[in-house]
Design a protein that fits this description.
Elements: E1 4-10, H1 17-20, E2 29-35, H2 38-48, E3 53-57, H3 58-65, E4 72-81, E5 88-91, E6 106-109, H4 115-126, E7 135-138, E8 159-162, H5 169-175, E9 180-182, H6 188-191, E10 197-199, H7 204-215, E11 220-227, H8 228-233, H9 237-257, H10 269-279, H11 292-304
Parallel strand pairs: 1-2, 1-3, 6-7, 6-9, 7-8
Antiparallel strand pairs: 3-11, 4-11, 5-9, 5-10
């Protein structure tokens, strides 16, 4: 029998390249792979449903689950995870030193429902700063205009304004028309060293490590989604995807740990690996069981922020064939 030829969109990561280049095979599948940016993958997935299998935003996926006919069912493969204390940028001349100083401010966002923004708002809420205490300015970072991928129905007390026509959030931050910016990508003005633009948590590395020590959480950004009709037609497919992507991640971690000649273009790999292993022996885990606490925290905040119309449970997120695996 011939293998299923399926389209697969994913980011260009060390943990996905073994599937892209064929070192890791997906049982029963001949994939047509596309290495894309998150913006391209998510737009295609939630606007046009273009690929059979796609890396998708956890937040957008949760929004879709509370609506009719969600196109994808998730696999507990968490291709993107990131601490988000380094995702809050502020004007240094506005007297903003702590999360509480964001109350009453105008903060730029590319999209309200971005997973990274959900995580930041959750961290701020734990510090006593709720979404209704900030005016959110939505717009394109470097190009004017950017729509939400999914239409939202937010609580009445959440204030979102569109950036003026023709304006970019990067230039508005430079001009002082907004007090800060929250997002997964740093604003260009920060990267270029603008003297008045800095991070709220200036040592995001230490802040994230402290937060992890207190909470035990490592934020999940993206999951792997498979078209529901395919999963129903081929119930073996979700398990085959979990197996292959887990193997690819193991291969990437093995390469990263070989520091005889570092595999990434970055110094101090041994030191960062040491810190990571002190935090957890399996920090970047796949599967449901080791990630229940992280997922429950996210789902509660997603609901409290008004993004999901009901409080989702972890059991609703993933294909049942991937919630447990065999052992030898």
């Amino acid at each position: 029998m011939s293998k299923l030829q399926l389209s697969l969109a994913m980011g260009d990561y060390d943990r996905t390249r073994p599937i892209h280049d064929g070192r890791v095979q997906i049982d029963g599948v001949d994939p047509i792979t596309f290495l894309q940016s998150p913006e391209e993958m998510f737009f295609n997935a939630f606007r046009h449903k273009t690929c059979d299998i796609s890396e998708i935003s956890l937040s957008s996926y949760c929004v879709s689950l509370t609506r009719e006919n969600p196109p994808y069912i998730a696999i507990p493969v968490f291709l993107s995870r990131a601490f988000r204390h380094s995702s809050v940028y502020i004007r240094a001349d506005r007297g903003i030193e702590t999360p509480q100083d964001l109350k009453g401010r105008r903060i730029g966002i590319a999209e309200y429902q971005l997973t990274a923004n959900v995580w930041v708002r959750a961290i701020l809420a734990d510090a006593g700063v709720t979404p209704d205490q900030i005016t959110w300015i939505r717009g394109g970072m470097d190009k004017p205009g950017r729509p939400e991928k999914i239409k939202l129905d937010l609580p009445d007390n959440v204030t979102i304004e569109n950036a003026p026509e023709g304006a970019t959030l990067n230039q508005m931050l430079i001009d002082g028309e907004i007090d800060g910016f929250i997002g997964p990508r740093w604003p260009r003005c920060y990267h270029e060293g603008h003297p008045q633009i800095r991070r709220l948590w200036q040592d995001g590395f230490s802040a994230a490590r402290q937060w992890h020590q207190e909470t035990g959480l490592f934020p999940i950004m993206h999951v792997l989604g498979v078209r529901r009709s395919l999963a129903e037609q081929h119930p073996w497919l979700p398990g085959a995807l979990l197996k292959a992507f887990t193997e690819a991640k193991t291969m990437a971690l093995d390469a990263l740990s070989d520091t005889s000649a570092t595999k990434v273009t970055m110094p101090f790999v041994e030191d960062v690996l040491g810190v990571t292993q002190q935090m957890s022996k399996d920090l970047w885990s796949y599967g449901v069981a080791p990630n229940v606490k992280t997922l429950e925290y996210f789902l509660r905040n997603h609901y409290e922020q008004g993004l999901s119309s009901r409080h989702l449970s972890v059991d609703e997120l993933f294909h049942p064939a991937t919630t447990e695996v065999y052992s030898l």
